Amino acid sequence: MASGLHDSSISNPIVRWIDQRMPIFTMMQKEYGTFPTPRNFNYFWNFGALAMINLVIMIATGVFLAMNYTAHTSLAFDSVERIMRDVNYGWLLRYVHMNGASMFFIVVYIHIWRGLYYGSYKAPRELLWMLGVVIFLLMMATAFMGYVLPWGQMSFWGATVITNLFSAIPLVGDSIVTLLWGGFSVDNPTLNRFFSLHYLLPFVIVGVVFLHVAALHITGSNNPLGIDPKGPQDTVPFHPYYTAKDSVGMIVYFIVFAFLVFFTPNYLGHPDNYIPANPLSTPAHIVPEWYFLPFYAILRAVPNKLGGVLMMFGAIAILFVLPWLDRSPVRSMRFRPIAKWLLLLWTANFLVLMWAGGRPAEGVYVLIARLCTAYYFAYFLVILPLLSKVERPLPLPESISRAVLRGGGPLRGAAAAKPMEKA
Amino acid sequence: MADTLAPSSSHSTAGAQGPEQGTKRDFLKLVTGSFAVIGVGAIVWPFIASMNPAKDVLALASTDVDLSHVAEGQAITVMWRGKPVFVRHRTPQEVEEARSVNVSELRDPEPDDARVQKAPWLIVVGVCTHLGCVPLGQKPTDPRGDYGGWFCPCHGSEYDTSGRIRRGPAPLNLVVPEYTFTSDTQIRIG
Q: Which of A64, A241, A418 is nearest residue B50 as measured by Cβ atoms?
């Protein structure tokens, strides 16, 4: 072997030539081929791969939409209508992009919930989890700015309301808002910079996703039992076992996605956004997209401008410190008889917040939003730290293979280990 | 046992049905692969199609030109599909020049009467067939080259009074667009 060349095990001479100089094929084989993965994944473990696919779909449709979009206040709305009516398959690209944003949040919410339920945020995966929260924040910023681009009524007033959140900051708030706008109201400079950033941020997300996956491949995946694999009998190679399992989830995902795009493309949107932006008249009932509603409900639940803004951002910021709030060494909620039910209650609570965020901010809705906001934070700040001390978890299984192979002995384990050696 | 669990069958074909026949796994791989290829193709199609001219672009693809105010010897330039079209009202002498040429000696042999519908009216796309510059010769003060038609300033191609290439690097005559006379003094290009 010549010095300096990677010792490649690939036989195809052309691929080998590349692999010796830049071992990406060896790396792919190691990280996605033979990568030892816990053998007991359930379908919740599909959602990382689905999120990845969704990101690719959003970037692909977005790049092609940008070829026909004009980021100017007097042309933006019409250019979107032109995409819908005149551009070949423009309606398809836009509806896929529009509903793709909703699908992305559905997938990512389930992905995050999976982490909450199976304790994927706990040591040694704290950084992996935090990178995930960064991706979530970037997604929210990207989605918000994307929603502004069609320059409809909801675009304009959504942009106005959300950028005004920063005016709650004492002393410098107003200057920051002027800076964000590039003027004294949401106007053409705002639209231009939002378009620029909306195009940029997805690629930043790609970068952080790369870090997220890199961190994952150091610690390895968590699994529904929350216990570490102890040897080859507890794992299977990623390919073909999880490429196949991910494909099953992918087909279901595409069915749901296609149903939205082809049968109810505007179901998750808001009709007011088909009215061109009018800076002189606010729509009567202003709501953000569904995926922001829980946080919007928290914002409105607090009867103080700065307080509401802080609570809203705090609701996401708290996820960063979650690994240190929950001190229980048991990861999976399967073995936490109390925390499990309180997390399920938290989940229902989150959905109620989502519902309350879409209702008018008056009467009983405010009360509900307040109670739910209190529980949202109490779960993280009181319940989890307290349960870490008082809860008695159920006994953990000896190993993954023992649990999933129903007491399968070393013989079974040895046979099952074979494919890994071959692959 | 090991074969049924093996993720990769490429090394174990002999086990199942002999090397001649494909295994069940080969069949599944083929079906999955074809499904993926067809699926990706179906997804790629609308993306590529979206780059073709949109309906509003196609709707503006023809241009009406009024010829009544173009005097003999005069030329006008009209915009058609984002490109200049030269409309030249040729003098009888220019027509004579264009028709007296020995067609077989031309680089892109084409008789003048195949390039016009009515002898005085020459209508050609004003884009040099070399590399796409707009040739000079529309104004009386422009250089028209040695053949009285157009001269391309970029690389020196010269066209005659029928818009045919006579000298220089361009390979073909100026393109005659599709057009019809909608009346004696009106044409529709495209």
A: A64
Q: Which of A86, A92, A423 sits opposite B8 (nearest CB)?
A: A423
A220 touches chain B (CB under 8 A): no
Task: Show the DSSP H helices in A220-304 as ranges.
Answer: 238-263, 293-301
- Domain span at B161: 57-189
Note if the pTM is more than 0.80: yes
pLDDT digits (tens, 9 = 90+) for A80-120: 999 999 999 999 999 999 999 999 999 999 999 999 999 99
**Within an 8 Å CB–CB cutoff, is residue A422 touching chain B?**
yes
Same domain flag for B73 and B165 = yes
Angle between helices A153-164 and A173-181 (to 10 degrees): 150
Same domain? B65 vs B34 = no
Q: Are residues B84 and B104 in the same domain?
A: yes
- In this prediction, residue B12 has a pLDDT band, given cuts at 50, 70 and 90, of very low
Domains and CATH numbers, chain A: 41-286 (1.20.810.10), 288-392 (1.10.287.980)
Catalytic residues of B: 155
Query: What's the mean pLDDT when you consider all of chain A?
Result: 93
DSSP A202-235: HHHHHHHHHHHHHHHHHH----TT-----SGGGE
Side by side, which strands form the sheet with B121-125? B75-80, B83-89, B121-125
String of DSSP letters for B41-67: HHHHHHHHHTTSPPHHHHHT--EEEE-
- Total domain count for chain B? 2
For residues B27 and B112, membership in a common domain is answered with: no
Indicate whether B69 and B158 sit together in one domain: yes
Interface test with A, best of B24, B50, B55, B56 (most A CBs within 10 A): B50
CA distance linking residue A338 with residue A199, whole number of Å = 44
Contact of A288 with chain B, judged by CB distance below 8 Å, is answered with no
Q: pLDDT at position B20, please?
A: 61
Confidence of residue B60 (pLDDT cuts 50, 70, 90): confident
Is B144 found in the same domain as B87?
yes
A404 and chain B in contact, CB less than 8 A:
no
B2 and A418: CB-CB below 8 Å?
yes
Range scoring the smallest mean pLDDT among A112-121, A309-318, A403-412, B70-79 = A403-412
Q: Which residue has the tokens 């780059």?
A: B51
- On whether any CB of chain A is under 8 Å from the CB of B5, the answer is yes
Are residues B13 and B94 both part of a single domain?
no
Distance from CA of B38 to the nearest CA of A (A): 15
Single out the residue in B49, B69, B85 at which a domain terminates: B49
ipTM, two decimals, is: 0.82
